[in-house]
Amino acid sequence: MDASRAPAFSGLVVREARLDELDSVGSLLAEVYGEYRPRFPADAWERYLGEIVDVRSRLADSVLIVAESEGQLVGTVGFYPDASLSALERWPAGWASIRTLAVLGDARRSGAGEALGVECVRQARAQRAHAIGLHTASFMTAATRLYERLGFRHAPEFDIEIGEMFTGRSLPPDASWQAQAFRLDL
Ligand SMILES: CC(C)(COP(=O)(O)OP(=O)(O)OC[C@H]1O[C@@H](n2cnc3c(N)ncnc32)[C@H](O)[C@@H]1OP(=O)(O)O)[C@@H](O)C(=O)NCCC(=O)NCCS
Questions:
Q1: 93 alpha carbon – ligand 1 mean position (Å)
Q2: Count of structural domains within the chain
Q3: Rounded to the nearest whole angstrom, what is the distance from the C-alpha of residue 173 to the centroid of ligand 1?
Q4: Selection from 72, 69, 80, 62 nearest residue 27 by Cα
Q5: Is the residue at 138 inside a domain?
Q6: What is the pTM of this model?
Q7: pLDDT by residue (tens digit) across 159-176?
Q8: Which residue has the higher pLDDT, 33 or 85?
Q9: pLDDT the model gives residue 148
Q10: What CATH number corresponds to the domain at position 128?
Q11: Where does 107-146 show beta strands of DSSP type E?
């Protein structure tokens, strides 16, 4: 990170979530992803958000990572050591993946998002994954900048139409958008 910046969070801790924090992480995800509600028709929104906040359903296949500052959870990300187990996506064997990156509004622009991303890259390198894949959207501008800062590049061969991803069918053209794939080769 740029050394000339103002100090980031003092004492930011990035670690695996405890089991007694799962509801809090779900609430954090609901709050952060709630800003994207206008992007979806109602039924697709229910499935999108319902899946995102259901952190328990992903525990067997992914590592639930949180960022904590001064005793408060401020962010989270899901790291999949084996991306092929990420039910919604189709990643090659040997890849890791990242899902559900989120930092609370009041805690943004202090490096928490980057610290969560860096931790995923560290874990992927440690297990010798070939690459890390993730999906984002063109309107998730802060996230896209962050991923590009970490070295991820658009991988259009893995783009998915969002309706297909969350409902198994295409959304009406006016409500449809691409979940854009990004990859970091390790
Ligand atoms: C994407 C997201 C996780 C980023 O979290 P964050 O904690 O703000 O991320 P960072 O602080 O590491 O970086 C954000 C910006 O703050 C800047 N920044 C980081 N530390 C800073 C500091 N100490 N001083 C000044 N600026 C700083 C970064 O350079 C970056 O700038 P940019 O957006 O202009 O490129 C957050 O915006 C979010 O939750 N968005 C909604 C959910 C979402 O879209 N998730 C992604 C789904 S794929």
A1: 30
A2: 1
A3: 30
A4: 72
A5: yes
A6: 0.93
A7: 998 888 777 778 888 878
A8: 33
A9: 98
A10: 3.40.630.30
A11: 131-136
